[in-house]
Design brief:
single chain, alpha/beta, 25% helix, globular
Amino acid sequence: MLKLLFIGDIVGRPGRDMVMERVPRLRQELALDFVIANAENVAAGAGITGKLAKSILESGVDAITLGDHVWDQRGWETEIATMDQVCRPANLPKSNPGWDHVIIEKRGFRVAMFTVLGRTFMGLKADCPFLCADRMIEQLRSQADAIVVEIHAEATSEKIALGWHLDGRVTAVLGTHTHVPTADACVLPKGTAFMCDVGMTGPYASVLGREVAPVVAKFIEGMPHRFEVAEGDVRLSGALVEISASTTRAKKIELLTVRK
């Protein structure tokens, strides 16, 4: 049996500090084989830089995925091409720089990871996540023992539909983007672990990681406000998946929450 931890959206300095402090300990305590993290919000809550990506990987994270904030930080479009442990969403236009998947290996077992962006209520130009996932699975099937798919999307219906669409063809389908962990972690009938949203890693005394007052004011007034990253009640949130090495199917999935 192998264990994979997928960490939800890391938000700002509080989220980064939590990952750097807790991941080394979690790897030992939980006997983790693989640790993957969505890090699209590590740079002041929006985007990522090469320096921050390296610090997260050095903390014990094996691979980094990204989402709709992938290009928010200037210069990252050049840096991403030099980092083969980081992948941008696979259904962005082919002209976008960077890798559309990563493959990590432990104990002779290879896990391929890729992300698709949802298209419902999302802003970035992206191909159909369902057809892109089909294409990526065919491409990666011979290169890896297990395939894990992240769907970075707003709509729960779109995430759930993709889970059913891929059941039995991948080891896990894990949702991110909405920053709120859901209570639907399960193994689908054909052996695919699914969770609609694995939550965020960052300050929960907030509105999705941002200071409460300006967000509330924006809803009430409609005027622009600066949304700073909050600092209170920092947690690490993610999905812990147990994988059968012999069948490559998921045996168990559960929400993992770690508080400071």
